[in-house]
């Protein structure tokens, strides 16, 4: 679910028209943090940052794009938090095969 949340976060980031700061900055920050978690450089505090950003931006855009991004991330964390925590703990996706000799 981390990978899917990242893909959708990237979609929201790309689709933001940039007219309102909450959406332009909010979708960008959500995508940056999701990339960190997916690529193995995420930290436990990034989960709190994600939720904090979602709380700040939800309902503040000129349209509902940023709210959609925030709801996606909030629900992903609520329903699959353990998977996010495993990505951070292991520094990689626990569901992708590890290349031979990598560990």
Strand content: under 5%
Class derived from helix and strand content: mainly alpha
| Global Rg | 14 Å
CATH superfamily: NADH-ubiquinone oxidoreductase 51kDa subunit, iron-sulphur binding domain
Please tell me what the overall shape is: elongated
How many β-strand stretches?
0
Please summarize the sheet with the most strands: none
Order of H and E elements: HHHH
Any idea what the CATH architecture is? Answer: Up-down Bundle
**CATH fold field value:** de novo design (two linked rop proteins)
Kindly report the average pLDDT value.
94
Number of DSSP helices? 4
Relative helix content: over 70%
Integer count of domains = 1
CATH class placement: Mainly Alpha
Low-confidence stretches are: none
Q: Span from first to last CA?
A: 23 Å
Topology summary:
Elements lengths: L1 H14 L5 H19 L4 H14 L7 H26 L13
Helix pairs in contact: 1-2, 1-4, 2-3, 2-4, 3-4
Q: What's the gist of this structure?
A:
By secondary structure, the chain is mainly α. It is built from 4 helices and no strands.
List key phrases describing it.
0% strand; mainly alpha; single chain; 103 residues; de novo design (two linked rop proteins); 4 helices
Q: If you had to describe this structure to a student in words, what would you say it looks like?
A:
- With 103 residues, this protein is an all-alpha fold.
- It has a single domain, classed as Up-down Bundle (de novo design (two linked rop proteins)), CATH 1.20.1440.
- It has helices spanning 2-15, 21-39, 44-57, 65-90.
- Helix 2 (21-39) runs parallel beside helix 4.
- It is elongated.
- The relative contact order is 0.19.
- The model has no long low-confidence stretch (mean pLDDT 94).
């Amino acid at each position: 679910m981390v990978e899917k949340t990242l893909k959708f976060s990237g979609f929201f980031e790309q689709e933001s028209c940039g007219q309102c700061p909450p959406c332009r900055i909010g979708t960008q920050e959500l995508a940056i943090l999701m990339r960190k978690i997916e690529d193995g450089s995420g930290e436990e505090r990034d989960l709190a940052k994600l939720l904090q950003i979602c709380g700040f931006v939800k309902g503040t855009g000129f349209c509902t794009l940023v709210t959609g991004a925030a709801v996606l991330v909030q629900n992903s964390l609520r329903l699959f938090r353990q998977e996010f925590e495993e990505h951070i703990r292991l520094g990689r996706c626990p569901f992708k095969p590890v290349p031979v000799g990598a560990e």
